[in-house]
Amino acid sequence: MGDTYPGAQVDERVEIMDAASRDSEDWPAKIETVLEQRKPYAVWLRGAKSYLNDLQAQLNRLDQQREELSTDPVFQPYLRGIAFGDLTRRAEEQQQQLSELGRRFERDTLNVVVVGTVNQGKSFLLRTLSGLPPSVIPDRGSRHSQLDPLTGARSTIIHEKGGPIRGRVLFYSEQNLLAVLNDYRAELLKALGRAPDNSLVAPYLDLDDFQQRPLAPEAQEAVTPGRYGALLKQLKKYKQLLVNDRSYIGRAPLENLLENDILGFVTQSTAEEDERRAYLHLAVEAVEIKCQFPHERVGKIALIDLPGLGEATLGGPERLLQTLRLDADIALFVWRPMPGDLLEGNELIGLYDICYQAMKHILPLHEWSFLVLNHDRTNNNLAICEEGLRKIREKEAVFKFFSERICDCSSPEEVRDEVLRHVLNHLALKIGGLDRRVAASCAQAIDELTRDTLAMLQKALAAFGGAAEGLDEKEFERLFLEKWEALSLGLNNLVAELQEKVDAPDESFVREVKDSLEACKSHKLLLSAEGLQKEIDADTSLDRILINHQIWMRAQISDSLRVLDGALDQPLLAVKTRVANIFDADAGLGSLVQHNQFEPLCESLALYSPPLREAFDNLVDFRMSARGLIGYKIRTKLQALEPRRTPAKAAPMAELTSASQEPAERKAAVWEEPPWTFRIKTRTENAANNSAAQKRDGADQMGGGHAYQHLVSLVSNTLDEIEKALSEDYSRPNQVAYTIVADFVDRVIHARQSKTEWRNVYRSLREKVWPLEYELRRRRQQKREQWCASLQRVVDATRQTAPTLPIEAP
Q1: Distances (CA, A) of 414 to 129, 451, 606, 629
Q2: How does DSSP assign 483-498, residue by residue?
Q3: Averaged pLDDT for residues 210-236
Q4: Residue 220 burial (CB < 10 Å; 0-12/13-18/19+)?
Q5: Phi, psi of 462 (to 5 degrees)
Q6: 52 in Cβ contact with 446 (< 8 Å)
Q7: Can you tell me the distance from the alpha carbon of 779 to that of 797, in angstroms, rounded to the nearest whole number?
Q8: Is the dihedral of CA 462, 463, 468, 472 positive or negative?
């Protein structure tokens, strides 16, 4: 609480008070000026509350939006350190603070709260200041116990020039009174240390529940039995209140009460005086009394009286704090030092500390508190008051006040000179500056909240400002690496598989060759034996017949084996299809690669990666043709069917027949000889020797059959030779497939820049490759844009609507 006032400051205060005494007639005008100067602050506070309310709502919406975004793992890194809960809480707290302190600038009076413990003379002082009669504010006298509290409810006494005494009473609502009763229940449990029975276990649900439950039993074994008994006694009073005066709970305020009707609502009456209304004050939340003060030139001031502290009733310190914080311009302490009181052990210390908490972060208590040391002439405590005043003004004193005076609180003259003048002077000359500090404190807290809010918003915008590309790039890189790894693995596995069977016959090629040769063998290349015989019988040269048929057979075999032109290309086509499948299934390029058609992909590669396009062109354009690769071998073996390569040499039909029946190992040697020429008998010779011919072994009749067998054998041997020659190339498709695919994979996967090239391709084709993911990305981008738009709106609104404290009045 700091040092006490030095002597120079005391002198200065005396000079100020003397000056104020000389122009006391100006107090009402000065107080009016203070109240006028408060109006701009009131307007500012209303705007500030509206600003904070809007800001809180906006921050709440942002926090909800942030929570929704945080469920997406992609957004989570960008949301680290971004939270609006603390800012929202601060906005709510500052709204509450403005609601409390704002009352300072909205009321029509300057308020003096009279503070003191029980039996310190507060009621005397209030009655002397206000001029109210004992019928409204009774003193204890002989009719009241000096130990029992007198004030029963908070009273606000307002100076109203020329008006009669009239009162206004506000009653507790059922909900507020229920909260008070449950506070008592909780405190009883603490004092007892345990639940004695079911009467205190559960909170009261409503007033009926409270009335119907039995009271807790007396308990001497409580942790704090004295407090337990006092609280239980108070709770009994509330029971009796609901029996006698429940109709007042929740009742509308009573207006314009006459002087004699006010007392029962303000004072804690005893049962002996008025048993019917002994507890009515418990139903009262507050009382307002308007009257004309004895000193008419006091201006617009009000006095606030509270039940004295030190009672067993609950909420006294809380009510005091709330009143000082919300409604006090000056705290007027009343202390009646008595023999045996110690300044540093007196209840005044506890009271001072409670009051100090009211505005400790805004206004130190000594700047707006005044101490009256009550000179009680009946007890002749003047010497004790003087000793107390001396100690309070010492440098080491634990208390500070803007002024301290000894005064007989029952003396109108002393109250006027020693209390009222100093209080009014302080209100007139100092409150304006204190008001400015209160408003500035609120403004500073709002400015700090505004700065912190804008900093958080800018942080969020900075995090998400580049998130359009950042989120896209980060998500793209993840997706691309998945495809790149799958593509690399798929193609490398294919190369390894092709390498393993590089020397193995290609089943499709083998099957195609065998099928083609078998088709040649099964195909009717020749006429039947009967057909040949008919040609022989037509006197045609057998030599020419054989020559013609060999030529026809050669041409027919050559034509039949033309199907092998694609026999080597088919295995490669199958491998290309497998490559295409990898780009479809693993690389995710199915929309650009269908079966083994790479043209759509090549068109895209031409735009985004010419090196990859060239590699694909080489793969797509590569062909293996049997005509170029194995055609020569087939043609070499077909030479066996070329009858005119060497001059003809005659041979008897018997040799032809016997030759046709030689073992297979000799047939090739026979058919590599130049073809024979045969002499065909004329029709006349045949007719002349008809009977002789019938007697022979039928060689002439079988000439067609022998020729047929000769040609069949010749074709079979030739086809066997072709098959033998082609068998050397059975593994050629696998070799070529491995070579072309391995070269392709080296260029598109293992080349130094291949990964970069593919990254560019995928980035350009990302919406085709990942349509679902990029639809999700589109929605994410939409959420990001909405989030950034929300942030920017709050930034703009915060900058545009942040309140500015009014310029201080001159």
Answers
A1: 11, 52, 105, 133
A2: HHHHHHHHHHHHHHHH
A3: 82
A4: exposed
A5: -65, -40
A6: yes
A7: 27
A8: positive
